[in-house]
Amino acid sequence: MDMHTVVSGEDAQRGIARVVVGDGRAAATTAADVVAVARHGARIELSEEAVAALAAAREVVDALAAKPEPVYGVSTGFGALATRHISTELRAQLQRNIVRSHAAGMGPRVEREVVRALMFLRLKTVCSGHTGVRPEVAQTMADVLNAGITPVVHEYGSLGCSGDLAPLSHCALTLMGEGDAEGPDGVVRPAGELLAEHGIAPVELREKEGLALLNGTDGMLGMLVMALDDLDTLYKSADITAALSMEALLGTDKVLAPELHAIRPHPGQAASAANMLAVLKGSGLTGHHQDDAPRVQDAYSVRCAPQVAGAGRDTMAHARLVAERELAAAVDNPVVLPDGRVESNGNFHGAPVAYVLDFLAIAAADLGSIAERRTDRLLDKNRSHGLPPFLADDPGVDSGLMIAQYTQAALVSEMKRLAVPASADSIPSSAMQEDHVSMGWSAARKLRTAVDNLARIVAVELYAATRGIELRDGLVPAPASRAAIAAVREAGVQGPGPDRFLAPDLAAADAFVRSGALVAAVETVTGPLA
């Protein structure tokens, strides 16, 4: 296998995984590899196959560099300046200059995990043998990641075409020993000092290498992979909170019957309905429709929960397919082909990734919206079927969760703004040479905010639904619901009672959801959820 995550030797003793990078021919990088490196500090090794592929591609580039004919990226300028043939003595300077000039990002720093994913995915492509980069440059990339050195990369500087140019340039600048980077201690210092401390020699770039380090969709792809990792937990959590809300509202679980979902065969819908049904198994609260406000059917936000969450799950499945294809790709321009040709191409255009990043933001916004509607219903005495107004201890004296729902509503409103597609926009650059771009980096950045907001929205529903269930005196919730309530209370989220400072409870609920603890608690009863 060319790239896989393993744990062995000293790393195993310290609990650190190791990712072995190959040439991509036998097995592509996996999403788990990206998460292991970006979030969990997995160490990276280059396989013999990768080193051989790097050396073979470099021989092709060196041979072309020796010829008098100009070759883009090897002996020419870049972008709109590609018409100039660069003489041999200026080519090293050309490669340094492209890195320095393209490291033009602005704004706040992006997160450490994003930079690590960005660098790792670029290393993956470099090791494919399609870029012409020397083995020692690839090894330096691995060494920097293994040392815990993180280049300072800024929020703005990528249009999502010709790759994530400015972000990748800031990473390449660190390899040269220039610019700023964060050390393993979290302190930002000159990159040259950090490299020296860790015994890493700065690279001296040669023909094509500067361009090859910059020309990829690695930032947007890394953020897509991590968003999918987070959303997997959040969609399971949302199924759980929807089930808890159904219990608290005395709804009917008959709408979750498998035969109803089989006649509209969307896989995600069936999975969400099955999750909710598993959570509600054995509930003494569901099905009490003939109360003080009898109803034939539950409101859409309750009854249609599997249809909305399921559509989001199917969107995630499509996004995973795109991510898997990108993880198997070698994105660069020009590329070294197996027959020795070096050809220009347009594979750096980020449209495939940008579209699914935007699609996920739309799905996440709708999931947040329906969760907020259920929360509002729990708080409204006219629609909650017997619960006190705002789930307050002494309504009028106590406001209960009134303003928690305000906060949730504000988050939902922002989610709707973040759902506006970035990929529908394009703005020309490089003297109209790069006249259509994907804006995929922007789509990825707003999706990260949307995912954060979704976790908070689900946490507020969890807070309201568990309180609502506990206020149903004399009715016994499902075993899985009881497990969720016990775990969230143990995590520091308090139950019903007089008004108190709510922000700490909401923060604890957010951390509980985000960590996967809600899913874990429920799965002790239900077994693995879909």
TrEMBL record:
Domain of life: Bacteria
Gene: hutH
Protein name as annotated: Histidine ammonia-lyase
Organism per entry: Streptomyces citrinus
Alphabetic keyword roster: Lyase
Top enzyme category: lyase
EC number: 4.3.1.3
Keyword Lyase among UniProt keywords: yes
